[in-house]
Design goal:
Helix 1 packs parallel to helix 3, helix 1 crosses helix 7 and helix 4 crosses helix 6. This protein starts with a strand and ends with a helix. A 6-stranded parallel beta sheet has the order 3-2-1-4-5-6, with helices on both faces. The chain has a single domain, classed as Rossmann fold. By secondary structure, the chain is α/β, with parallel strands linked by helices. The C terminus is likely disordered.
């Protein structure tokens, strides 16, 4: 069975992590790490319901200070890691090889093992330091940086549609098939049919 580790840090957008965990749970084991800062953000963005869902769909949930957790070891085989949302503090530490908690430890393991590491930053605007740190990380072949940006071509109607789009993009990076959003080819075909019909 596939195994993925989710890191939840102290940036806004914790519901994105819940949506991803729900989806990954369907076909993989999910191990989640929640930082202390993330717990404070969770209080404002869903509270106990968010934590309940994280625990429900995760095989195990760890605190970020549990450096002795099994997933801390490189001998614990996983297929990759997603840090969602990913704070600029975490980005800075990863870019400079600073290991200070379980999230940065496991992320560093992914880089060393050349496993996929997906970072989903939630910050705007960005300063030069943020950009330099992300540039350093983006030069590592196994690291992907995916901002949860607003999108329109799939005609979203709800916040859930936007969350599904971001979740789908992450699954695309991981090479996991899904139908969480309508793809561009499908939309082009639909537009072509509509255009042809209108010309009749």
């Amino acid at each position: 069975m596939l195994r993925y580790i989710i890191g939840v840090t102290g940036a806004s957008g914790v519901k994105l992590s819940v949506r991803l965990i729900e989806e990954l749970h369907k076909f993989s084991e999910v191990y989640t790490i929640v930082s202390n800062s993330a717990k404070k953000v969770i209080e404002y963005e869903g509270g106990s319901e968010v934590l309940k869902k994280i625990k429900r769909y995760s095989k195990n949930v760890f605190n970020a200070d549990e450096l002795d957790a099994p997933i801390s070891s490189m001998s614990f085989p996983v297929n990759g890691m997603i840090i969602i949302p990913c704070s600029m503090n975490t980005i800075a530490k990863l870019a400079n090889g600073i290991i200070c908690n379980l999230i940065s430890r496991v992320a560093d393991n992914q880089i060393r093992m050349r496993n996929k590491l997906v970072l989903v930053p939630r910050e705007a605007p960005l300063n030069q330091i943020h950009l330099r740190n992300m540039l350093k990380l983006s030069k590592i072949d196994s690291v992907y940086i995916l901002f949860p940006v607003l999108t329109y071509y799939h005609d979203p109607k709800t916040i859930e549609d936007m969350e599904n789009f971001v979740t789908g993009k992450i699954l695309d990076i991981l090479g996991i098939a899904h139908n969480l959003y309508r793809r561009w080819d499908t939309l082009k075909k639909l537009d072509s049919v509509c255009l042809s019909t209108s010309l009749l």
